[in-house]
Design a protein that fits this description.
heterodimer; A: 278 residues; mainly alpha; MetI-like fold; 2 domains; 12 helices; 1% strand; B: mainly alpha; globular
């Protein structure tokens, strides 16, 4: 009580104890990742004593055929997943935003399920489904990724739909009416008026789908046929054996990729709220 | 909003693709899991759907109950730790200026965007016997020895492959899930109530316990649910950080499909996990509705 107040009563963020607490939490969250990144540049196999700076683990990652192939597979899957998810997610968002139709509530809440259902359940479902319809396991290379791509699209496009739907809320419906009045066809009004308004949402959704696909382990683990290796699956099998600077380097590459995607996504979401048609 | 029959062709053109995809690749697989959960192994590869409840009954065997209760307990402990860690952070975020606020939000969310496998791997690298934590302890140990304390050789601590490693992993991964709903709830609080409490002579701690926490209760409840659900269903964390006998429900499910090859039982377990998840989500919606009421007054 008698303490001289150095800050306004509600400026809790200036309190020393709170700051120390936050610093502790951030240390907990970041030190493992930062140490992982730091030691990917460490010139020592034993990984724990700093022996000098090197890029050799990165070179090794790119010389490691299996790892490179896995990374390549993951990128192909992520790109395909992104394209399909954006189209399906945008259509789903549009239909739910634009139309009233029977059982709409069911579809709307149903589309939330892939977001909330535990990954393991969906993984199991995908495994049993492809097994049941006797999806061939011995397809040639790019097509052999199709099971994983399908599974990834299924859990990604509802996320895209959520993002795009939020964006559509700021659309002024009179613009579409005006386009139709001025003689545009329904389809033309969609591609020339609505889609441009959606674009920031589409980009944010695309990056979301991309990172979701790149990150996924559990569902891929169940969906992949015996011969297909993606990056997380490869890292998983490497992690099971041991901790090596090579895995650190590979992980750092993925962290950087994700950071870039996130930064771009946030930039687009920042500019998205209804600025142009307020 | 337009009625679908006023513009049928356009409606079908936009509705068909996502709906069909959803039905074919989400609903159908899930229905299959559901159907198989009432089935029996009728040979090495065949499963007959016999309508039996035996797979669900199996879940009540003591060793399975043990795994299920372990999952709940470990996830719950992790959730509580998350709450304790996150609450002060959420308080600071609520009362910080806009710039600090968005920086804190970003810092909390950033690890969340990093690959789960990589984060788990980073923890392993920290906590293994030759890891950074043991290395630091050994370092101080050796200093103490060189100062003349007779401590003997440093014996590395076994930090990994036990239940506490799982809890640490779950906290590490799920902390952002807790911060966001807490922050959302605290941000809606009527600040004049806090000011009134402080004005009337209550200390900061008293105000926190008697004013802020009760008012933020719906948000706290939502945070608990939102953190608990994914923690309970986590697969990678118990798989990589736990010992061979520290199973959680997701690792148990995985075993039914890979090692034990008992798909019907695995399906039943999946649906048990799914039902629990959906019940908790219903709870969350309920808390959110209540939270809306609190802020509206």
């Amino acid at each position: 009580m008698s303490k001289k107040p150095q800050r306004a009563p509600l400026e809790y963020s200036k309190s020393f104890r709170l700051r120390a607490w936050i610093a502790g939490v951030l240390l907990f969250l970041y030190s493992p990742l930062l140490i992982l990144i730091a030691f990917s540049f460490n010139d020592s196999k034993r990984n724990i004593v700093w022996k000098g700076f090197t890029f050799k683990w990165y070179v090794k990652v790119f010389e490691n055929d299996a790892l490179r192939e896995a990374l390549f597979n993951s990128l192909i899957i992520a790109v395909l997943c992104t394209i399909f998810s954006v189209v399906l997610g945008a259509l789903a968002a549009f239909v739910l935003w634009r139309f009233k139709f029977p059982m709409k509530g069911l579809l709307e809440s149903g589309l939330n399920l892939p977001i909330v259902v535990p990954e393991i359940c969906m993984g199991v479902g995908v495994l049993m489904f492809f097994n049941k319809i006797h999806w061939p396991n011995d397809l040639p290379w790019p097509i052999s990724l199709s099971q994983i791509v399908i599974a990834h699209i299924t859990f990604s496009f509802p996320f895209v739909a959520v993002v795009v739907r939020a964006r559509l809320e700021s659309f002024n419906k009179e613009l579409e009416a005006a386009a139709l009045d001025l003689g545009a066809s329904q389809w033309r009004a969609f591609t020339d008026v609505i889609v441009p308004h959606m674009t920031p949402g589409l980009i944010a959704g695309a990056l979301l789908a991309f990172t979701l696909s790149l990150d996924d382990f559990v569902i891929t683990f169940f969906a992949s046929g015996p011969g297909t290796i993606t990056f997380p699956i490869k890292v998983y099998s490497m992690v099971r054996f041991s901790v090596t600077p090579e895995v650190n380097a590979a992980s750092t590459i993925i962290i950087v990729l994700t950071l870039i995607a996130t930064a771009v996504a946030m930039k687009f979401q920042d500019t998205s709220p209804n600025k142009e048609n307020a | 909003m337009q009625n679908w029959f006023e513009n049928k062709r356009f409606f079908w053109a936009t509705m068909l693709a996502p709906t069909v995809w959803f039905l074919a690749f989400f609903v159908a697989p899930m229905a299959l899991v559901w159907a198989y959960s009432f089935g029996e192994n009728a040979g090495p590869v065949n499963i007959a759907i016999t309508g039996t409840f035996g797979n669900y009954a199996k879940a009540f065997r003591p060793e399975i109950i043990q795994v299920l209760s372990d999952s709940v307990v470990l996830a719950f402990i992790a959730t509580l730790i998350c709450l304790v860690l996150a609450f002060p952070v959420a308080i600071a975020m609520t009362f910080a200026d806009d710039k600090t606020k968005s920086w804190l939000l970003l810092l909390i969310m950033l690890p969340f965007w990093t690959n789960l496998l990589i984060r788990t791997y980073a923890l392993i690298a920290m906590m293994r016997t030759e890891g950074f934590i043991n290395f630091s302890f050994a370092f101080f140990h050796n200093i103490a020895v060189s100062l003349g304390f007779n401590l003997g050789d440093y014996v590395p601590m076994e930090l990994l492959y036990n239940k506490s490693a799982i809890v640490i992993g779950l906290v590490y991964v799920h902390l952002p899930f807790m911060v966001l709903p807490l922050y959302a709830a605290l941000d809606k609080l009527d600040r004049s109530l806090i000011e009134a409490s402080l004005d009337l002579g209550a200390g900061h701690m008293t105000t926190m316990w008697k004013i802020v926490v009760p008012l933020a209760l719906p948000g706290i409840a939502a945070g608990l649910v939102i953190t608990f659900i994914p923690a309970m269903g986590a697969y990678l964390t118990p798989d990589l950080l736990g010992g061979p006998n520290d199973l959680m429900i997701a690792t148990l499910i995985e075993r039914q499909f890979k090692r034990a090859n008992d798909w019907p039982f695995g399906s039943a377990l999946s649906f048990i996990l799914m039902y629990v998840t959906l019940i908790f989500f219903a709870l969350r919606t309920f808390f959110e509705a209540r939270g809306g009421k609190v802020s509206a007054h």
